[in-house]
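Thread: Oxidoreductase, structure

OP (GT): Posting the sequence first so everyone is looking at the same thing. Length is 361 residues per the record. Can we get the structure tokens written out before standup tomorrow? I want them in the notebook alongside the other entries.
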Amino acid sequence: MAQQVQAVIAPGRNEPVRVETIVIPDPGPGEAVVKIQACGVCHTDLHYKQGGINDEFPFLLGHEAAGVVESVGEGVTDVAPGDFVILNWRAVCGQCRACLRGRPWYCFNTHNAKQKMTLLDGTELSPALGIGAFAEKTLVASGQCTKVDPEVAPEVAGLLGCGVMAGIGAAINTGQVGRGDSVAVIGCGGVGDAAVAGARLAGAAKIIAVDIDDRKLETAKKMGATHTVNSRTTDPVEAIRALTDGHGADVVIEAVGRPETYEQAFYARDLAGTVVLVGVPTPDMKLELPLLDVFGRGGSLKSSWYGDCLPSRDFPMLVDLHQQGRIDLAAFVTETIGLGDIEQAFARMHDGDVLRSVVVF
Ligand code: APR
Ligand code: ZN
Ligand code: ZN
């Protein structure tokens, strides 16, 4: 039996979001209905609302979520009703070249639920990143559900579904930060702070946080930064070099998504160092670098997409490490809010004080 639940819809470009009743079909083959317990508010939700992703309004927003599987469709064996899960937006196919070569985080063939959730009048909804979890319940592909320790607080677990995983993964998966490394993180919002926390987890000896806002640098210290640089007043490349005996950092993570900060990252790395781009640029942005400077260095330039994560490997591990007190994911939760408060959460997003607002049910 299809069921009706409350959910947050973005009805049209730049229109305020609103709470509406939506219809969730019973799960079909390969699908699951998940009762959402918590869902973080991410910049991508705001981009959807602004029409910056595509024009397939109305959107069902929300994609950083955790909850309990309520029911599963035919053939679903990976999760069962009652399982506590984190949702991911990259359910991999298992059959493409990337999957078959053991690098599923490069899978191009990811999938979501086939059936559509709708408004009461039958209008089909586009779930943000194929999830749509600002809703009491949502319909996903079973491969979007990853079972983790149910003892963890849902508002903490949900954050691993997007931004926090992107940042931690940029450090531990893409950057391959190792014990004793020096790491610099440029841009210390939620993603950059997660990269700082990831670098600490990986055993980095020096973690240099760079931002233009002193309040962000204070938070970065709590996440594990050993040094901070305000790049509004200090040249970050010189500062990072000075802090690394003139060498530059072994791994520099760019978590802003701008050409000038990428350029800083490029020049702030050790000759054999790695630059990781995790900040998302806009289509108009271009990078201009003297080719001789690229030639004159070894190392590597990488981008990190969803932290190159493998949910089945990384979500349970990070939840366990959090439960053991070895990484503090709760520090990313600034406030918990209700379904009706998302518009205010969008407005506060660029406040220096908010890392994540999380809707709890
Ligand atoms: N130099 C250094 N830091 C900067 C600069 C700059 N020129 N410009 C902005 N910042 C800082 C901001 O002060 C802020 O702390 O970058 C941080 C960006 O943080 P948020 O806006 O909170 O964004 P976040 O969620 O962390 O995402 C960062 O990663 O996933 C992508 O789309 C996301 O591109 C965005 C980036
Ligand atoms: Zn694949
Ligand atoms: Zn997100």
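GT: Both are above now. Quick notes for whoever picks this up: The longest strand covers residues 31-40. The longest helix spans residues 311-323.
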